[in-house]
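Q: Hi! First time doing this. I have a protein sequence and I read that you can turn it into a structure. Is that right? Here it is:
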Amino acid sequence: MQPQSLRLWAPIAIGSLALGIAIGANLTSSHKTHTPAAEAADQTTKVLYWYDPMVPDQHFDQPGPSPFMDMELVPKYAEPATSAAGLSINPALVQNLGMRKTKVQRLPIHSELELVGQLQFNQRNQAIVQLRAAGFVEKTWPLAEGDQVSAGQPLAEFDIPEWLDAQNELLSQPIDQNPNLLATLRARLQLLGMPDALITKVEKTRQPVTRLTFTSPIAGVIDMLEVKTGMALASGATLAKINNLDSLWLEAAIPEAQANRLRAGDSARFYPTNAADPVLTGHLEYLLPTVNADTRTLTARMLLDNPEGRLKPGTSGRVILQSSTRETGLFVPTEAVIRTGKRVLVMVAEPDGSFMPVVVITGHEQGSHTRILQGLHEDQEVVASGQFLLDSEASFLGIAPTAAENTMENHNHD
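A: Yes, that's right. Below is the predicted 3D structure, encoded as structure tokens:
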């Protein structure tokens, strides 16, 4: 600490020490001059400290004007022994401090997880263009990987010599004779990759054809294109892979401990990093059956609709997975929950106007609410704003929190 800081803090430390000594001396003197009966009678009028209602955390050992507001300090009296079970606060003070109360509600239960995910191609909406017979590339269109194409877009024109012998054999047969042989010859051409419409044209014109323009069977993005003019390709060679963008896969890592909360069909919503991009909706298809040994996570695969193909694979963003059940539970606003590190409390507003700290057992958070597993009953009132001040005051007065009651329900509510 710097010397200047020490100079600033020294008066405060000395003042605090003096205040502690004064309070201790006052308590000692009071103990010596009062009998137990007198102490009990004097309990209701004993002033613990003075404070400014607008800054209640600051306590003063003497009355006087407030250093914060243009008003006099207010005395804080010791609570009567009969009210030790709860904390009584002046209703006017409750209103001035803006304390807000809310009821414990029964709500439908749904589990919600917020994750980070990345869009990928939906591999079920992928088309692969292959050669069924060896051929030569006679012409290509100016396309490359990443280009978007429509259904029927020409990709490349091929010359396929293997078709010639099969067509000549078909054309050598009389049209009205041996229909079984004709069907066999047509099937041979089909196996070589000749379209039915082209076979019909050859039979009608009686002229063999060896050239064919390969087109994209679906609209989408070219993921792979392996054709150049002049290339010779063998039977079974892959010419192109095309992925449709009408729907996309979204994959996200799910902590192993939370995976049991998800079911196939749970709703999914994807918020891209770029706020200008549209939000996609869909559902959880399934959890991949393997666990990542390093991160102890499972991969959730979600299917999302992608209207007009506006979002592209590789886009990352925030994912919200939500599952619903027919079960209901008790909920309070999350802001009403006090977490001390050792226990979880809420301040319950009693019917007589007093407040009682109650230990609760909480479940998962659901939106802006937290599920209460034990400790509260439906329609009880809890403090949703100002509860930390009440908890501090209750601790100062030694009011012990009420233990959580076993109110956990073992059945579902439709």
